Amino acid sequence: MSGVNGAAHGNQLSLDRDLVPPFTALQAMAESSRCLYCYEAACVTACPTAIDIPGFIRKIGTGNVKGAARTILDANIMGGTCARACPTEVLCEQACVRNKAEAEPVAIGRLQRYATDALFKAGVQPFTRQAPTGKHVAVVGGGPAGLACAHRLALLGHEVTVFEARAKAGGLNEYGLAAYKMVGDFAQREVDFILSLGGISVKTGMALGRDVTLAQLRQDFDAVFLGVGLAGINTLGVAGEDLAGVADAVDVIAALRQRTAPPVAVAGPLAGRRVVVIGGGNTAVDAAIQSLCAGAAEVTMAYRRGTAEMGATGHEQDLARTQGVVLRTWLAPREILGAGGAVSGIVLERMAMDAGRLVGTGETVTIPCDVVLKAVGQKLAPGGLDGLALAGGRIQVDETLATSLPGVYAGGDCIKSGEDLTVQSVADGKAAAFAIDAYLKA
Amino acid sequence: MADLRATIAGITSPNPFWLASAPPTDKEYNIVRAFKAGWGGVVWKTLGEDPPVVNVSSRYGALLDSNRALIGFNNIELITDRPLEVNLREIAAVKKAWPDRAVVVSLMAVMTEAAWAGLARRIEPTGADGLELNFGCPHGMCERGMGSAIGQVPEMVEQVTRWVKNATRLPVIVKLTPNITNVLWSAEAAKRGGADAVSLINTINSIASVDLDAMAPTPTVGGKGTHGGYCGPAVKPIALNMVAEIVRNPDTRGLPISGIGGIGTWRDAAEFLALGCGSVQVCTAAMTHGFRIVEDMIDGLSAWMDEKGYRTLADFQGRAVPNVVNWNDLNMNFVTKAKIDKDLCIDCGRCHIACEDTSHQAIRIIPAEGKRLFEVVDEECVGCNLCAHVCPVPDCITMHEQETGRPYLTWPEHPQNPARVLPPKAAE
Ligand SMILES: Cc1cc2nc3c(=O)[nH]c(=O)nc-3n(C[C@H](O)[C@H](O)[C@H](O)COP(=O)(O)OP(=O)(O)OC[C@H]3O[C@@H](n4cnc5c(N)ncnc54)[C@H](O)[C@@H]3O)c2cc1C
Ligand SMILES: Cc1cc2nc3c(=O)[nH]c(=O)nc-3n(C[C@H](O)[C@H](O)[C@H](O)COP(=O)(O)O)c2cc1C
Ligand code: SF4
Ligand code: SF4
Ligand code: SF4
């Protein structure tokens, strides 16, 4: 990578510094002038929330920066987070026609951040709600899908109550995204901005299946939206997984984001310790890099297939490498070794493709380490979802995002829509809100 | 290596690139730097009678593109604000030190023979190569009866030119103002008055912008603004046209021309030369980038001339003139159509929306895997070139002459012309 989107801008990452620094006014002006204001632009098609990208970039160019932010937020209420966290290299910027013209896309993400930052800084509420409808919708899960749905429903004049299991709303924006993408308290500022519209009340510490049931919600509300994400964790299924020093990557990331001590199982801070991360997705990359940020002595990422099959984009793999993560491929975990109840190493088997199938070669490799982080995927936590049809391990929905139960809709990571991304979850939440609106008005 | 030597009204210079009368030529210091950089000549910043004028603070306005590139420039400055004696001394010193360069001196005075002849006689002994009469300044000086106040009245142009010609043996160049309805009237007047050459254009009356906070024109002088002179890249097309008008007008044909207006590159200069100019003058481009731009002007022009096989400026000077005709002389049977190179196309859709919304609905989009295909509908395309101008990729949209087999046919001869004049043959 090069140019304005270059990986880490040559800096060593830290937990409190932006991976990609914000644009100055001069940079934003220069970059906005690179946009060709395409007609039916390819970048818009590539954005799951279909932000009018040429439209907002032109507004930056004419000095109408708050108007640009409104254009963004109108399509994607989490335009601020998406500007920071979207893998633009596989979304809008990948489609930008400037790639073909000069092998360097317009820095859409950074321009989006420039505009939304300006609006948040000005403290402007750009939206007004439609007349009250008297309808009340329950939203389960205060992540991107839930909040996007709640915001759109509130705009359309409905009342919304959000039930959130954790102490803070924001979902993985607050507990999952890498610290260097969401510097400072941006996730909470964005939640506050969304709620400042009015019409949305959030009940934290309220979990579906524990504090409230779906049947109850269906009875008490006119419709229900489920945006519960993937709260379940896949296990490795190997010996030694219960040793001190083995943890779920998402828990460690959440702790780093909350600036609290890492989960007990890791047994102490990461500083000075040797970490092995199992997995090849973005979560694995995030866990690996943030472990280094937290002072880990060495970090190895071990993935059972090749780099081409990794879930992490090429850009993110490069980022990991430039930060000093050792990427090792074709290695599957077989046993976590311990000494005195704590991790001392991990045994991995060398893998290979045989007639299209991934097979073990019998050859093993042992990596001495103190910490093993598991990042082999999240899954739907079934609690509270009784009566709902599932498909492929997720909640089954039709094209309007309606579940098998009348009046119950779902979106975000808990359904299979597109990639498991913030922007896709926002798109789902918005689409579901329109579907719920139509259902309520039918 | 091409020979770039230029001669105009008997004034010679090692290359045709002169600095126009303006701040870059205000004093010895600047001009020595300019000559060191390679400029072929200068027109000294306009001299006037003492006492010198006084300028205001806040003097320039600008039109910038979205990259902050300067495309238009405007000023409310007056003529030199230094004593005449100082200027004359420096002119003599510069000419002595740089004998091969053209040193022309611009002057301006009130509408009396004594004033104009007196100034001319004081300049002559400096050794300057020629005089340029400033009939152009469109702000400030005209309110005192000078500059464009003279340049806009052909009789006065003729009169002053004659006064100066009678007072000096130096070649006299008359600098024309574009702030008139017909540049030929002043060019013809200059010729009648005995001008050895004309130079054009001076700046165009303008308001650069309105400051929406101050609610006043820019440049803003303590909350107020005034109209100023416009120049820079944006005025080049206007200057080219006025040059072309003079060069093909029977009454002024052959009158040497020093071209001015928006020249910043060798290519701009070559265009003025192709329209018959003998030298070119530059102001805004030098004020934007400094004197060093002349290096590429010289290098680029000679490289292009070598490539084309032109050994001297005369080899291509005026070559484009025969092809500048009136609309009525254009061939109505000529047909050109746009063609899109689908390999170069980057799929931005600009050609489509431009033609669809504002022209002839002649570019259709064919949905395809990965990228859309843009195709010109020949039956609808009128050959307006709009798409080729809005396409961001050079040479992606090109215009192609269509074989029609039909003869050259002008509008006066056209069957659809209600006032058709039958060609001589058919009329018989
Ligand atoms: C470590 C990590 C890094 C990531 N990095 C990126 C990235 O850089 N860019 C990107 O685009 N995407 C990234 N993602 C993916 C992205 O975070 C998710 O796709 C997105 O957050 C999904 O939104 P959601 O609203 O569906 O679910 P979530 O964000 O998971 O939100 C679900 C919410 O529901 C709550 N909840 C769960 N169960 C219940 C219940 N039973 N009752 C009540 N509340 C409940 C949860 O507490 C949570 O607040 C990352 C994911 C992870 C794990
Ligand atoms: C700041 C400024 C001052 C000028 N002063 C004079 C002047 O004193 N006498 C004159 O004949 N022209 C003057 N001009 C006009 C220039 O000589 C020239 O005709 C005009 O700028 C067009 O050329 P350009 O597009 O290269 O700038 C001035 C122009 C500028 C920008
Ligand atoms: S594809 Fe690129 S150039 Fe075209 S509108 Fe989108 S950002 Fe602008
Ligand atoms: S040349 Fe004009 S009419 Fe023809 S396709 Fe292009 S824009 Fe349309
Ligand atoms: S303007 Fe040029 S690059 Fe853009 S779609 Fe048309 S032909 Fe292709």
UniProtKB/TrEMBL annotation, chain A:
It comes from the Bacteria. It holds the Pfam family Fer4_20. Residues 26-56 form the 4Fe-4S ferredoxin-type domain. GO terms for molecular function: iron-sulfur cluster binding; oxidoreductase activity. InterPro entries: 4Fe4S_Fe-S-bd (IPR017896), DPD_II (IPR028261), FAD/NAD-bd_sf (IPR036188), FAD/NAD-binding_dom (IPR023753), Helical_ferredxn (IPR009051). This is Glutamate synthase (NADPH/NADH) small chain. It comes from Nitrospirillum amazonense.
From TrEMBL, chain B:
PROSITE patterns: 4FE4S_FER_1 (PS00198), 4FE4S_FER_2 (PS51379). Keywords: Iron, Iron-sulfur, Metal-binding, Oxidoreductase. Belongs to the dihydropyrimidine dehydrogenase family. Residues 407-428 are annotated as: Disordered. Involved in pyrimidine base degradation. Catalyzes physiologically the reduction of uracil to 5,6-dihydrouracil (DHU) by using NADH as a specific cosubstrate. It also catalyzes the reverse reaction and the reduction of thymine to 5,6-dihydrothymine (DHT). InterPro entries: 4Fe4S_Fe-S-bd, 4Fe4S_Fe_S_CS, Aldolase_TIM, Dihydroorotate_DH_cat. This is dihydrouracil dehydrogenase (NAD(+)). Residues 336-368, 372-402 form the 4Fe-4S ferredoxin-type domain. NCBIfam families: PRK08318.1 (NF006183).
